[in-house]
Amino acid sequence: MPEPLKVLFVCTANICRSPAMELIARDLAGDADVVFASSGTHAVDGHAMDADMVATLPKGAADAFRSRALTAAVLSDVDLVLTAESVHREHILDDFPQLHRKVFTLGQFAATIAELPGLDGRELVEAAGRRRTPTLPEHDVADPYRRGTAASRTATGTITAMLRDIVPRLTGASAARED
Fold first, then answer.
1. Which of 37, 99, 139, 146 is most enclosed, with most CB atoms within 10 A?
2. How buried is residue 66: exposed, middle or buried, by Cβ count under 10 Å (0-12/13-18/19+)?
3. CA 61, CA 127: separation in Å to the nearest integer?
Protein backbone atom coordinates (compact mmCIF):
# COMPACT_ATOMS: atom_id res chain seq x y z
CA MET A 1 0.00 0.00 0.00
CA PRO A 2 1.44 3.41 -0.94
CA GLU A 3 2.37 5.98 1.67
CA PRO A 4 -0.29 8.62 2.32
CA LEU A 5 0.20 12.02 0.72
CA LYS A 6 1.80 14.34 3.32
CA VAL A 7 0.93 18.05 3.25
CA LEU A 8 2.56 20.69 5.44
CA PHE A 9 1.06 24.14 6.03
CA VAL A 10 3.46 26.93 7.02
CA CYS A 11 3.07 30.43 8.47
CA THR A 12 5.23 32.52 10.80
CA ALA A 13 4.62 31.39 14.40
CA ASN A 14 2.33 28.40 13.75
CA ILE A 15 -0.33 29.80 16.07
CA CYS A 16 -2.87 31.35 13.62
CA ARG A 17 -2.95 30.61 9.90
CA SER A 18 -1.08 27.33 9.45
CA PRO A 19 -2.82 25.54 12.33
CA ALA A 20 -6.16 26.75 10.99
CA MET A 21 -5.17 25.37 7.57
CA GLU A 22 -4.20 22.04 9.14
CA LEU A 23 -7.39 21.69 11.19
CA ILE A 24 -9.74 22.84 8.41
CA ALA A 25 -8.03 20.54 5.88
CA ARG A 26 -8.37 17.57 8.23
CA ASP A 27 -12.04 18.32 8.70
CA LEU A 28 -12.64 18.65 4.95
CA ALA A 29 -10.67 15.47 4.20
CA GLY A 30 -12.59 13.27 6.62
CA ASP A 31 -11.05 9.81 6.67
CA ALA A 32 -9.10 10.23 3.41
CA ASP A 33 -5.55 8.90 3.35
CA VAL A 34 -3.81 12.30 3.44
CA VAL A 35 -1.73 13.52 6.38
CA PHE A 36 -1.97 17.24 7.21
CA ALA A 37 0.46 18.99 9.56
CA SER A 38 1.72 22.53 10.16
CA SER A 39 4.73 24.45 11.38
CA GLY A 40 6.12 27.98 11.49
CA THR A 41 9.19 29.64 10.05
CA HIS A 42 9.75 31.39 13.40
CA ALA A 43 7.66 29.18 15.68
CA VAL A 44 8.49 28.24 19.24
CA ASP A 45 7.57 24.63 19.93
CA GLY A 46 4.62 24.00 22.22
CA HIS A 47 2.52 27.17 22.06
CA ALA A 48 -1.27 26.96 21.94
CA MET A 49 -3.17 28.47 19.04
CA ASP A 50 -4.06 32.19 19.19
CA ALA A 51 -7.38 32.68 21.04
CA ASP A 52 -8.92 34.92 18.36
CA MET A 53 -8.18 32.31 15.70
CA VAL A 54 -9.47 29.46 17.88
CA ALA A 55 -12.77 31.35 18.19
CA THR A 56 -13.27 31.02 14.41
CA LEU A 57 -13.05 27.19 14.51
CA PRO A 58 -15.53 24.60 15.82
CA LYS A 59 -15.47 24.31 19.62
CA GLY A 60 -12.69 22.01 20.77
CA ALA A 61 -11.03 21.73 17.35
CA ALA A 62 -7.78 23.35 18.50
CA ASP A 63 -7.63 22.03 22.08
CA ALA A 64 -4.74 19.63 21.47
CA PHE A 65 -2.87 21.82 18.99
CA ARG A 66 0.69 22.92 19.85
CA SER A 67 3.03 24.94 17.62
CA ARG A 68 6.05 23.41 15.95
CA ALA A 69 9.13 25.01 14.43
CA LEU A 70 9.90 24.42 10.77
CA THR A 71 13.04 22.32 10.36
CA ALA A 72 14.88 20.56 7.56
CA ALA A 73 13.67 17.24 8.99
CA VAL A 74 10.04 18.37 8.87
CA LEU A 75 10.44 19.53 5.26
CA SER A 76 12.16 16.32 4.18
CA ASP A 77 9.18 14.22 5.23
CA VAL A 78 6.42 15.94 3.19
CA ASP A 79 5.17 15.82 -0.39
CA LEU A 80 3.66 19.32 -0.56
CA VAL A 81 4.24 22.55 1.38
CA LEU A 82 1.55 25.25 1.31
CA THR A 83 2.44 28.58 2.89
CA ALA A 84 0.23 31.40 4.12
CA GLU A 85 2.21 34.09 2.29
CA SER A 86 4.85 34.37 -0.39
CA VAL A 87 7.35 35.53 2.25
CA HIS A 88 7.09 32.09 3.91
CA ARG A 89 7.62 30.40 0.56
CA GLU A 90 10.68 32.57 -0.09
CA HIS A 91 12.02 31.84 3.40
CA ILE A 92 11.87 28.10 2.72
CA LEU A 93 13.30 28.33 -0.80
CA ASP A 94 16.18 30.56 0.34
CA ASP A 95 17.45 27.68 2.49
CA PHE A 96 16.10 24.76 0.44
CA PRO A 97 16.00 25.76 -3.24
CA GLN A 98 15.79 22.09 -4.25
CA LEU A 99 12.21 22.07 -2.91
CA HIS A 100 10.96 24.55 -5.54
CA ARG A 101 8.61 21.97 -7.10
CA LYS A 102 6.75 21.28 -3.88
CA VAL A 103 6.48 24.68 -2.14
CA PHE A 104 3.57 26.98 -3.02
CA THR A 105 1.52 29.63 -1.32
CA LEU A 106 -1.98 28.34 -0.55
CA GLY A 107 -3.53 30.66 -3.14
CA GLN A 108 -0.86 29.91 -5.72
CA PHE A 109 -1.55 26.19 -5.41
CA ALA A 110 -5.30 26.77 -5.71
CA ALA A 111 -4.71 28.82 -8.90
CA THR A 112 -2.29 26.23 -10.29
CA ILE A 113 -4.60 23.25 -9.79
CA ALA A 114 -7.48 25.14 -11.37
CA GLU A 115 -5.44 24.87 -14.59
CA LEU A 116 -4.97 21.10 -14.13
CA PRO A 117 -8.42 19.52 -14.42
CA GLY A 118 -8.81 15.77 -14.08
CA LEU A 119 -5.81 15.23 -11.79
CA ASP A 120 -5.89 14.30 -8.11
CA GLY A 121 -3.55 13.22 -5.30
CA ARG A 122 0.13 12.66 -6.06
CA GLU A 123 -0.44 13.05 -9.78
CA LEU A 124 -1.87 16.53 -9.14
CA VAL A 125 1.01 17.53 -6.84
CA GLU A 126 3.60 16.37 -9.38
CA ALA A 127 1.87 18.17 -12.26
CA ALA A 128 1.55 21.34 -10.18
CA GLY A 129 5.28 21.22 -9.48
CA ARG A 130 6.00 21.17 -13.19
CA ARG A 131 3.52 23.95 -13.98
CA ARG A 132 2.93 26.66 -11.45
CA THR A 133 1.24 30.02 -11.65
CA PRO A 134 3.24 32.99 -10.35
CA THR A 135 2.74 34.09 -6.76
CA LEU A 136 0.49 37.12 -6.54
CA PRO A 137 -0.43 39.30 -3.55
CA GLU A 138 -4.02 38.04 -3.73
CA HIS A 139 -2.73 34.49 -3.14
CA ASP A 140 -1.60 35.44 0.38
CA VAL A 141 -3.63 34.94 3.55
CA ALA A 142 -3.27 38.13 5.63
CA ASP A 143 -1.84 37.67 9.11
CA PRO A 144 -4.61 38.14 11.70
CA TYR A 145 -2.29 38.04 14.73
CA ARG A 146 -3.13 40.80 17.22
CA ARG A 147 -5.63 42.29 14.79
CA GLY A 148 -8.76 41.02 16.55
CA THR A 149 -11.52 38.55 15.84
CA ALA A 150 -12.67 40.22 12.61
CA ALA A 151 -9.22 39.73 11.06
CA SER A 152 -9.19 36.14 12.31
CA ARG A 153 -12.63 35.47 10.80
CA THR A 154 -11.44 36.95 7.49
CA ALA A 155 -8.31 34.76 7.49
CA THR A 156 -10.33 31.65 8.35
CA GLY A 157 -12.82 32.46 5.59
CA THR A 158 -10.04 32.89 3.03
CA ILE A 159 -8.35 29.66 4.14
CA THR A 160 -11.60 27.71 4.08
CA ALA A 161 -12.54 28.94 0.60
CA MET A 162 -9.15 27.92 -0.82
CA LEU A 163 -9.10 24.56 0.96
CA ARG A 164 -12.59 23.70 -0.30
CA ASP A 165 -11.01 23.67 -3.78
CA ILE A 166 -7.71 22.08 -2.77
CA VAL A 167 -8.58 19.28 -0.33
CA PRO A 168 -10.97 17.33 -2.60
CA ARG A 169 -8.29 17.35 -5.30
CA LEU A 170 -5.63 16.10 -2.88
CA THR A 171 -7.86 13.36 -1.47
CA GLY A 172 -9.33 12.24 -4.78
CA ALA A 173 -12.83 13.18 -3.63
CA SER A 174 -13.33 15.45 -6.64
CA ALA A 175 -12.90 12.46 -8.99
CA ALA A 176 -15.33 10.41 -6.96
CA ARG A 177 -17.96 13.16 -7.24
CA GLU A 178 -17.56 13.24 -11.05
CA ASP A 179 -18.18 9.46 -11.40
1. 139
2. middle
3. 32
**Domain made up of 5-178: CATH architecture:** 3-Layer(aba) Sandwich (3.40)
Alpha-carbon distance 45 to 147, whole Å? 23
d(C-alpha 31, C-alpha 27), whole Å = 9
pLDDT in tens, 131-140: 877 888 999 9
CB atoms within 10 A of CB 137: 10
The letter for the amino acid at 132 is R
Amino acid 71 reads T
Taking CA atoms, 139 is separated from 3, 70, 99, 104, 167, in Å, by 29, 21, 19, 10, 17
Q: Give all strands (DSSP E) within the chain, no chain letters.
A: 5-11, 34-40, 80-83, 103-105
Residue 48 CA to residue 40 CA, distance in Å, equals: 13
Q: What is the pTM of this model?
A: 0.94
Query: 80-106, pLDDT tens digit by residue?
Result: 999 999 999 999 999 999 999 999 999
